[in-house]
Amino acid sequence: MNALTFGFSLLFSLLSLVAGGLPWLKLKAPYGFILLPLKLSAAGLAPLGIAAGGLGLALGWLAHSWPAVVLGGLSAGLCALFIYQVLALPDPFEPAFGKDWQSKIPPERAARLLPRRWVGWLSTRTNPGWQRDIPFWTFPGSERQLLCDLWTPPAGIPLSGMAFIYSHGSDWYLLDKDFGTRLFFRHLAGQGHVVMDVAYRLSPETDMSGMVGDVKRAVAWMKDHGKEYGVDPQKIILGGGSAGGHLSLLAAYAPYQAEMTPPDVKDYDLSVRGVISEYGPTDLKACYFHTNQDKTTRSLSPAPATASKPAPARQSSTRKSDMARLGFDKPSDSGAFVKLLGGHPEQAPEAYARYSPLTYIHPGCPPTLLIQGTDDLITPAFATRCFHKKLEETGVLALNVIYPHTDHAFDLFFPRLSPAAQSSYFMVDHFLALLG
Question: Regarding the domain delimited by 122-435, which CATH topology (the fold level of the hierarchy) does it fall under?
Answer without folding.
Answer: Rossmann fold (3.40.50)
